[in-house]
């Protein structure tokens, strides 16, 4: 008989697992890892025609994507264009960023798998006499290690030509130059920290779903068990 077991700790672990997976995925796909030095948003000629003043903008650069502004025929109008600068893996600007992409991709794939499995832990708590919570927690710990490796290698690529074009000639490995870190980098770090928190908290989720109170509810014949 299938028992649906829902506890506060197991639900919290499930929600955190889903949030972490999405946060890391969104950060990886974003172009807001580096915020470049300010550039004028319109030319002096365009300003003279419109009577406006120059408003600088900051182009952004990600692991494989970028955001910048492109001008139309009317020099007074510019739109932000975001998209991948690398059409193939080999075109990623730095070998360090290629390694970063691999490590982050592997970590995110593991996190997405765990997030998918975590939804079904309400109905299935073990497979082959092994707790799903413990297995998922172990996988989250492994994913966290991959994420850490990717984040450590990422700053080593700041000396590539692509980063220098955004951050100035003073940019080099682990030195930002005229750039600053964008929200995607901080999101990736925060997601990595939460990944390890999820890995530790999975043990609490397992304890909550196998507690004496749950066993008492099962012995009473209940199929839906909700405990605080």
TrEMBL record:
One of its GO terms (cellular component) is membrane. Keywords: Fertilization, Membrane, Transmembrane, Transmembrane helix. The chain crosses the membrane at residues 12-35, 96-120, 132-154, 183-203. One of its GO terms (biological process) is single fertilization. It is found in: Membrane. This is LHPL2 protein. The keyword Membrane applies. Pfam families: L_HMGIC_fpl. Its main location: membrane. InterPro entries: LHFPL. It comes from Centropus bengalensis. It is a multi-pass membrane protein. Belongs to the LHFP family.
């Amino acid at each position: 008989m299938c028992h649906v077991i829902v506890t506060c700790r197991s639900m919290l672990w499930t929600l955190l697992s889903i949030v972490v997976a999405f946060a890391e995925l969104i950060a990886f796909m974003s172009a807001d890892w580096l915020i470049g030095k300010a550039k004028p948003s319109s030319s002096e000629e365009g300003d003279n025609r419109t009577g406006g003043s120059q408003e600088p903008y900051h182009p952004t650069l990600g692991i494989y994507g970028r955001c910048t502004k492109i001008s139309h025929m009317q020099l007074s109008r510019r739109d932000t264009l975001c998209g991948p600068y690398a059409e193939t893996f080999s075109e990623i600007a730095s070998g360090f960023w290629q390694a970063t992409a691999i490590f982050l991709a592997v970590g995110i794939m593991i996190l997405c798998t765990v997030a998918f499995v975590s939804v079904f832990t309400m109905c299935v708590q073990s497979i082959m006499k092994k707790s799903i919570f413990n297995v998922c927690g172990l996988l989250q710990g492994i994913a966290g290690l991959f994420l850490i490796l990717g984040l450590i290698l990422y700053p080593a690529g700041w000396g590539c030509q692509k980063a220098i074009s955004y951050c100035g000639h003073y940019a080099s490995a682990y030195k930002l130059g005229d750039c600053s870190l964008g929200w995607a980098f901080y999101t990736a770090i925060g997601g990595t920290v939460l990944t390890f928190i999820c890995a530790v908290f999975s043990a609490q989720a397992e304890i909550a779903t196998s507690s004496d109170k749950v066993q008492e509810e099962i012995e009473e014949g209940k199929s839906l068990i909700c405990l605080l």
